Amino acid sequence: MAVEIERNADRRMPKPFARQLQFRDGLILALLSLWPIRRRSMAALTVTSHLIRSGATLTINLHAEDTKSGRSDSFIVPAKLAPHLAHYLDCGRPRLARCQASDTLWISQRGKALTADAIYQVVRRLTQQSFAEPMSMHDFRRAAATSLAIEAPDKIGLATGLLQHTRADTTGRHYNLAGCAGASRRFKQALSKRKGCSIQNHDRSVKHENT
Fold first, then answer.
1. Are 145 and 171 in contact (CB under 8 A)?
2. Under a CB-based contact definition with an 8 Å cutoff, are residues 140 and 28 in contact?
3. Contact predicate 109/17, CB 8 Å
4. Are 34 and 143 in contact (CB under 8 A)?
5. Which of 17, 106, 181, 201 is the most buried (most CB within 10 A)?
6. Residue range 88-130, pLDDT digits in tens
7. Are the C-beta atoms of residues 38 and 140 closer than 8 Å to each other?
8. How far apart are CA 198 and CA 192, in angstroms?
9. Average pLDDT, rounded, for the chain
10. Which residue, 146, 138, 148, 132, is CA-closest to 184?
11. Phi and psi dihedrals of 113, rounded to 5?
């Protein structure tokens, strides 16, 4: 119900608030792309307990109670994203909060904490708008492990820590799709090679007939 209220309210919001909501949603998606944490962990983030600002550097800390695995985690926001998060903290977030006392990082259009389910719907809505197919937050986690396996197979063990898994086989069993991607790529290469050979054979046959 809260998710539906949030979605409907977006359409009725004055333009300044609508822009702040769009900025907030974009930040959520950008952060999730770099640090694919679970929806509960994303919703748990607060300004005073989870964020550390040191000059232009922003660090986000997850406490053990915020994660499914019961392990703490830390993420240094990349330099390209940090100014945008800082702008949200200094400008966008206060406007959405409208002077209401709230320590949560992600503020809803009502000035309260954005729930885990609402964050999940934000991600699905934005990805559907951009890619014509909605992506769940778990899809981002699978993509992170698969990308590591494809681009840096010697460092695939990093995915276990990135996804907050306690066992490496969990990462491989549920999230690593690199084997399927590699097989698909090799199949396409084989088809292309076979097609190339067929074209060459056809050209030789035509040349032979014309001589």
1. yes
2. no
3. yes
4. no
5. 106
6. 999 999 999 987 888 999 999 889 999 999 999 999 999 999 8
7. no
8. 10
9. 76
10. 146
11. -65, 135
Task: With beta carbons less than 8 A apart as the criterion, state whether 24 and 16 touch.
Answer: no
Specify the DSSP class assigned to residue 134: -
CB contact at 8 A, 171 and 160: yes
CA 143 to chain centroid, in Å, comes to: 9
CA distance 65 to 41: 9
Query: Is-contact 67 38, C-beta < 8 A?
Result: yes
How far apart, in whole angstroms, are the C-alpha atoms of residue 17 and residue 26?
Answer: 14
In this prediction, residue 141 carries a pLDDT of: 76
The predicted model gives 58-84 an average pLDDT of 90
Q: Find out whether 102 and 112 touch, Cβ atoms under 8 Å.
A: yes
Tokens of 75: 């993420």
Calculate the alpha carbon distances from 167 to 134, 159, 209 in Å.
Answer: 29, 11, 64
Q: Could you tell me which of 178, 185, 169 has the C-alpha nearest to residue 150?
A: 178
Query: Residue 80 and residue 138: Cα distance in Å, rounded?
Result: 24
What's the rounded Cα separation, in Å, for the pair 171 and 159? 7
**24: its two tokens:** 């907030």
What distance in Å separates the CA atoms of residue 128 and residue 176, rounded to the nearest whole number?
A: 23
